[in-house]
Amino acid sequence: MTIKTANLGFPRIGRHRELKFALESYWAGKTDRAALLETARTLRADHWRLQREKGIDIIPSNDFSFYDHVLDTAVMVGAVPPVYGWRGGPVDLDVYFAMARGSSGNGHADCGHAHHAAGAAALEMTKWFDTNYHYMVPELKADQRFELTSNRPLEAFLEAKTLGIHTRPVILGPVTFLTLSKALDDSAPIDLLERLLPVYVRILSELADAGVDSVQVDEPALVLDLSDKERQAFALAYKALAKAAPNLKLVLATYFGPLGDNLDIALQLPVAGLHFDLVRGGSTLEDIVRRAPAHLALSLGIIDGRNIWRSDLQAIASRIAAVVALRGEADVVIAPSCSLLHVPIDIELETALDDELRCWLAFATQKLDEIALLGRHFTAGDDASSLTASQQTMHARLTSVRVHDPLVQGRLHELRGIEQRRQSPFSARQPIQHRRFKLPALPTTTIGSFPQTAEVRKARSMHDKGELSYVDYEAFLEKETAAAIRWQEEIGLDVLVHGEFERNDMVQYFGEQLSGFAFTKLGWVQSYGSRCVRPPIIYGDVARPNPMTVRWWKYAQSMTDRPLKGMLTGPVTILNWSFVRDDLPRETVCRQIALAIRDEVHDLEEAGAAMIQIDEAALREGLPLRRADWAHYLAWAVECFRISSSDVSDETQIHTHMCYSQFNDIMEAIAAMDADVISIETSRSRMELLDAFVERDYPNEIGPGVYDIHSPRIPSIEEMGTLLSLARERLTDGQLWVNPDCGLKTRKWDEVKPALANMVAAAAKLRLELARNGQRTASV
Ligand SMILES: Nc1nc2c(c(=O)[nH]1)N[C@@H](CNc1ccc(C(=O)N[C@@H](CCC(=O)N[C@@H](CCC(=O)N[C@@H](CCC(=O)O)C(=O)O)C(=O)O)C(=O)O)cc1)CN2
Ligand code: MET
Ligand SMILES: [Zn+2]
């Protein structure tokens, strides 16, 4: 038997986000294709060399992507919808980007081809399992044809080979690819398996011919609840793939959770190796080790690919040793739990972090070190001092005074067992609030952010670097905020926002002001395409030393007589979009954040805020991957929202916002949040998502989005009017608000201004009709 080390994927964006800047510059027409390709090639080479230098035995290739690896797979197998004008053969990069970002109708912005004259919308984007990474949803139809457009894994393998690096190509497995796809008709993507397999067979046999000895086939769908048909698909698929290239070792990679009831399927497949996530599925280790066929190589996903803490390598080494002892002749591989795509690249770049904190952390580069160290421990019998050192570091973190705040723990204790609820039920609050605000029917508002223009980001970046003084930066933000308020009044919005110009990100901004949080300067993680986030690091008990948003709310409200919403990010979203300490249950950390937000809500109300919005964008998307775990999660998530939002008087209106609005399964939880107003993303579903609210007889007020902010398109008055009529078929007029799908930070002002003016006009038109109808009824 041998013990080897492996990596499953390395971040693509670059230490200094080189890929982001190369992409955005190419899209803007400022640099040419050759420059983009060159940046990409350099990044790949750097990453392969780094992994080799670190001493990783099995280095992945084809983990790079210009935008997203699911999109890459769709393009590779020829699943390109006709609107993008592809006519067979290799898919041009601009067609690829059109699928990712849409193409404008004027024929030059994204793509210079005449067939794009009408413009094409981007594919839908959704989150990758329970991460904050988003993939493009492949669109398939019943008579879908697949063909190999170009063997990308092969190209990547050969590119690494010319650098003298022998890699293991990664591909997204056929079953997961189909389960992540959507059908445009009534068909089920999984039924296309037999059509798809020949393409995979060809990819693999070409790889084998080129001298590849092993391929990592990602099948994370194996950690989900699967239908019988999907389970059967695995047997069918892997029988065909194993036959295609008998000399190629297929390593089936699963991650993000335990295999659970899918373990038997996985163990019966004709593959050479199985990778599984030990960080999120630890309890099944013994089961796997005992039941795995004797020849099966086990790849142990034992270094956390989803979090940033240095590991206790001593403890991990013991776990590995136990597996090794039981496995006899079979190979064992030491690996991260999943691709390192979800962690930042290098802690060494964080020179501003204090040494104590820095030594608690391991980003992608440091995780490679940890894996290599474990490998050497088993193969070269390296002395154990580094292992013990890591254990001491971990111990130091857990016992550090910086991690524990008795005041916070005391407050949490007091909270225990007390149900958090508003003073009166919604039916009593609603008339009080209506009397207070006297808003017209169908009140108009927006979700919070306005465009983060280059100017805004430049000013913040200069301020961060000390090139723009605090006073000048604040003055600049005041100017932006004031202009946004004047403009909102001008076009006639009823409920205003301050625009969030002072915020770098809706989560990071709060993290930076809370204690128990650390944040990075260059700890970027890809969220979608070229867009990245720097998730805050929650290392200790959370408290809010000072008000976080009151100053901006006050400034903005002082400029207008219309109500201006206080704007906060909710506890569940802050938790889900941060790196969370691993020494407390997540729900406990969430309750701590909830208390901090509760304090902020209190201060906003005291300062005079009459409406306070608490965004829970990530509450729905944070749902556990397995249905059996939903109830527990929803119970504490809703409780945390209520801790944050319930300590206000009846006349204070609590808003919330959620972008991902598939609520059918969690309607009870949405209702239990008891927000006075909820705004949601609905425009693309043509309001169908509202049916869940109707079925449940949901009484509170709702703002279903009528403007798809993910597209640069400017919706017309008629279009939004139609959406409002569809909403009125489902909701009462007293319930309905008018707003976009989400915040407008990624849009440009020349898109936002006409779009919102149209939105206000659509509401006004409808009000007029309501008034006329009302008069007619009155005069009869
Ligand atoms: N955390 C989080 N997750 C989320 C969302 C979200 O808003 N936040 N929204 C959903 C979609 N995901 C998104 C993720 C990122 C962005 C986004 O716009 N990201 C920005 C960065 C935002 C940011 O942190 N901005 C900072 C830093 C900006 C920056 O790059 N500054 C330059 C200099 C800029 C200049 O001089 O022009 C630098 O530091 O080098 C700031 O404004 O302060 C980007 O990639 O461009 C949008 C949506 C789901 N998940
Ligand atoms: C991703 S949800 C965004 C909510 C936030 N208030 C904004 O408007 O940007
Ligand atoms: Zn949103």
Automatic annotation (TrEMBL):
Gene3D superfamilies: 3.20.20.210
Record's catalysed reaction(s): 5-methyltetrahydropteroyltri-L-glutamate + L-homocysteine = tetrahydropteroyltri-L-glutamate + L-methionine
InterPro entries reported for this sequence: Cbl-indep_Met_Synth_N, Cobalamin-indep_Met_synthase, Met_Synth_C/arc, UROD/MetE-like_sf
Origin: domain of life: Bacteria
Keywords of the record: Amino-acid biosynthesis, Metal-binding, Methionine biosynthesis, Methyltransferase, Repeat, Transferase, Zinc
The Cobalamin-independent methionine synthase MetE C-terminal/archaeal domain, residue ranges: 442-764
UniProt keyword annotation of Amino-acid biosynthesis present: yes
Residues the record marks as active site: H710
Cofactor note: Binds 2 Zn(2+) ions per subunit.
Binding site for L-methionine: I447, G448, S449, E500, D615
Cited SUPFAM superfamilies: UROD/MetE-like
Binding site for Zn(2+): H657, C659, E681, C742
E.C. numbers: 2.1.1.14
Presence of the UniProt keyword Repeat in the record: yes
NCBIfam families: met_syn_B12ind, PRK05222.1
The protein's name: 5-methyltetrahydropteroyltriglutamate--homocysteine methyltransferase
Source organism of this protein record: Rhizobium lusitanum
Lineage: Bacteria, Pseudomonadati, Pseudomonadota, Alphaproteobacteria, Hyphomicrobiales
